[in-house]
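**Folding the chain**
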Amino acid sequence: MADFTEKLHAGMRTKYPLRRRLLARKTRFQSMQVVDTVRFGRMLVLDDIVETTEADEFVYHEMMTHVPMYTHPNPKRVLIIGGGDGGVLREVLRHPVERAVMVEIDGAVVDAAKKYLRKICGRAFKDPRAELVIGDGAAYVRDTADSFDVVIVDSTDPLGPSMPLFGKEFYRNAARIMGRQGLLVRQTGSAFMQGPELAAAVKHARQVFDCVEVFLSAVPTYVGGHFTHPLMGMTDFTKRITAAAVRRSFERRPLKTRYYNPEVHAAAFALPEYIGALCGGPRRRTK
């Protein structure tokens, strides 16, 4: 079986030996593959970019979910934009939420996850608290009359159908549907390899949100060093991301995790100097 080679970053190639290719098709929005790799198990690939794997998905999905969920004082209503593999939805539903709405533009990704990536999505799509909407996440945020405590933007990189999710208009619409203590989190790729993406996301977010802080994770298949996640809200939440504050929140709603814990939660917001420079340093909204 031929290898799969990812060419996301200029001047870098990452090769994954394969056992077999389970799915390869063009959807309405993108090319999609599900491959069985030698080292990472089953892997979802969209437009020739690695999205998630069975072996290391827990790092990304736990950090994308539990950092905002334990930072918010009482998250009951959660909106997930993207996340078609079901991993974030799975982690959200481990909390005592009342409602979790997932808006995924490409229903074919959800279908593939249900068939080939059950180790990742589990029974999340069957949970009665979960609502699946196949549609445009940016349009949903613009048009919905509902409100949410936590918004998790689990999108691909700012290419193709994900482009509208990275602009100032999206942030303004998201802020409109979030409660006063609401939080929004997204991923902005490798700080070393995709620094302009992180810098642009933080700049746009700070024109809308009062508090924007960036935290880090380490996902083996997301090559290029520190993987970045801006967290943003309309109130200053920095006192709620200390280890002591998160520990209190975690003890009220304990979960068994593989990567996340309260100490990692707090430490993830400590940024190397070059990443802090990309983010412009911690500051409040100026516009």
